Structure formats: C-alpha cells, structure tokens
UniProtKB/TrEMBL annotation:
Name of the protein in question: DNA repair protein RadA
InterPro entries hit by this protein: AAA+_ATPase, DNA_repair_RadA, P-loop_NTPase, RecA_ATP-bd, Ribosomal_Su5_D2-typ_SF, Ribsml_uS5_D2-typ_fold_subgr, Rubredoxin_2
Organism: Desulfocapsa sulfexigens (strain DSM 10523 / SB164P1)
Role, per record: DNA-dependent ATPase involved in processing of recombination intermediates, plays a role in repairing DNA breaks. Stimulates the branch migration of RecA-mediated strand transfer reactions, allowing the 3' invading strand to extend heteroduplex DNA faster. Binds ssDNA in the presence of ADP but not other nucleotides, has ATPase activity that is stimulated by ssDNA and various branched DNA structures, but inhibited by SSB. Does not have RecA's homology-searching function.
Protein encoded by which gene: radA
Record text about domains: The middle region has homology to RecA with ATPase motifs including the RadA KNRFG motif, while the C-terminus is homologous to Lon protease.
Amino acid sequence: MAKKQETAFVCTDCGADFSRWLGQCSVCKEWNTVKEVRLGRSPAGRHSTGYSGKHSMVQLLSEVDRSRAERISTGIAEFDRVLGQGIVCGSVVLIGGAPGAGKSTLLLQALAKGSVSGIPVLYVSGEESPQQIAERADRLELPAGNIKMLAETSVEEICKVMNKEEPQVVVIDSIQVVHSMSSESAPGSISQVRESAAILTRYAKETNTSIFMVGHVTKDHSLAGPMTLSHIVDAQVVLSSTDDARYRILRADKNRFGSVGELGFFAMTDRGLKEVKNPSAMFLSRSGTPASGSAVTVVWEGTRPLLVEIQALVTECQSGNPRRLAVGMDQNRIAMLLAVLAKHGGLATASDEVYVNVVGGIRVYETSSDLAAMVGIVSSLQDRVIPHDSLFFGEIGLSGEIRPVANGEARLKEAAKHGFRRAVIPKANAPRQPVKSLEIVAVGSLVEALEALY
C-alpha cells in the first residue's frame, strides 16, 4: 500500500502552520488564508545546512569574522542606494511590483551594465522566452553580448547550470514559476515557492553568488507567497508607480545590509528606467497660480531629505456627517491634528469636511509632516494663501507643543537648495549657524506657529 502523502495547513499571509483547516487564521486573524499544502519528501541522507549555507557549529561571538561584505555596483545609482550602496556578494534580494511596473526591465538594465564591467551574469527566465528578452534588450539598446540566458523552471537544473557557468549575479524571473522535484505540489504553491527559495538561498550563501528573485504581487500590492519567503531573503524591495504614470518608486521594505525605507526614483521612458537625480523637484511641480491649502514640508526617506507638497481642502458639509479623508497620510493622525487645532488653536472644523492629499502619490509615514498638514488645513479654512517660498516641518503633540524631528539641519539645507526663503520649524531644531538665504522661524507651540504662518 502506498504511503499516504503528508499535508499541512499554512496561512498564506503570516506563514503559521496548523494541523487542520481553519476559516480564520488564529495568528494574524485574516479570513480564508489557510491553505492545504503537500509536504515534499527530502532525499534520504541529505543534511540540511540551513538558509545560511553553513553547517551548525558553536563558536564565540568575538571570534566571528567581522570583515565588511564585498559589494558590487549595479551601475544604477538609485538602485545601489536602495540596496545599501550596491549588491552584497552572496545576498538574496526579492523584488516585487505590479505587472508592468518595470521589474524585469530594471534587472535587465542592471545585468547589462554589470556585464560591461566584466561581471559574469545569468538571466533565468521561467515566464518569457529568450527571444522576448532579446527583443526587449534591443528595444532598450542595451549591450547584451555578455548576458547569458537560461529558460528553465526546475530549481535543480538551474543550480546545475550555475555550477557550470559560475555567474556572480543571477536573476530568477520569477520565483513563483520555479519548482523543485523534491516537492510534489504544483508550481506556484506555498510549499514549492518555499522549497525553491530555500534551495536558491543556500546556493547563494555557499557559492557567494548574488541572486535576485522576482516576485508576483497580490491585488492589495503585497508580495504573493508564504511569509517564509520574506524571512529568508536578505532584502525585499518593491517597485511601484506614482499617480503620474511616468515615474516609478523603488522602496526597501527589508534590508539586512542597508536602510529600511530607502527610496529610489526612476522615470519610465522608451529606453527603459532612467534615474531621477532630483526627486524633490518631481514632487514640487506646483501650479503657477498660488492657492490656499498648499504647504510644503521636507520628510526624511531612508538616508536623504525629500521635499513634498501637502494639499488640504476644508469645505462646508452638505450632509449631516462630515468626512475626514487623507490620501498619502495616516487618516487617524489627521483626525488627531483637527482635535488639537480645535483645543489649542481655537479653530473648530467639526461641521466641515476635511480632505488632505500628499501630491505625487508618495506616502508619508513621518510625524514631521504634522505642522505642514496643520497649516494647510488652516490656510484652506481661512482661504488665505501660504507664500510659495515658505516651508514647514515639525511634530505636533496633543498639548499643542511643536516637537523636534531628526536631521533638522539637513532638511533646512535641502530646502535652501530648492529656493525656499523661510522655514517654520521647532525651536529644538533651530540651527546653531544660520543657513544661507533662509529665514528661520523657530516656534514652540501651535499658537506661535499659527502667528508665524503669514
């Protein structure tokens, strides 16, 4: 009698395992995410080395080799910035994005630049034919003479080819179509993705090969597959588009060798993705006619400041239930700022509808944008225009105080570089030395900020 195939029930969102099927995951509380998977049989006698690619051994932490990891430049400065100033040898990077975002284009451009520098590269395609990729390279006018191609979906065969060719950088496009013969599940299933990613990660660590794995995204723009996939990779980056279809933003959601939250900016052209050298200018394309409700702030993204425009609209409510809507900011924080404005600023908006939008499609996670959002709301409420050369940043507390933010001086220098002449900032962020051509107005409370608004 054939041995019964062992199965497990795994949540596709959080990766939790269960002994039976559940309608709701008891760990992440999501509904209809628990799926049945068949467990693959490991070859007899195979000794697992873990994701690090090394056998288990006990050693003193002080004796561990702490030499800095070697890095390879992709030749694309914005890509290098997101990765942490280059590709770390032996690292595994998972890159995701919606269909048509430009994932394959960006990686093909990076391989082309690397191959010109003499780096051995390999592009493994499981979705497109070599002819399609060659046509894309011709269309982008990329030097493809040294890029090696492989159309294969078996992870065992891919590892055999990599052992033979010994590439330094490999692209797997995509991990969802790669399968392992040690697992009997269908390609794309949770167990297949997990097993294939584990094999590739071990190979990368054992041979010091850098591997990029392209991942599909779900309808809510999160990376598809088990959470194990995010845990075992060294870096996870997502390429997304802005409200303006010409631009793309590359964000690092996880990075063991660099800053988390680092952003890279690109423009989509007929020659592929091109770097945006001055992203602040991309988000500051303001209209020539000044309007009320518009305020500029400077946020800190990764390792650099970024100027963004925040627009607010306060209008009389035509129904009995005023709306509070925020796009690009936390809606709960806007509600809190409106409460502080009513309590400590004397300006109530309980009967008005309030809309706040971050221009350009970028999402602001920092609290340093509190002051700019607040003055934008006040400007729209009073229908008074804020001067175009004014800038605001600072966190607002529940007692109406203006709290300092990190990297204040670097933010001011970025503002001065873009022609701003006046900055309303927290007192604790006031620079010791004056910033050239920039008037600093340091405030300690919401009342002081409103007095300095115009």
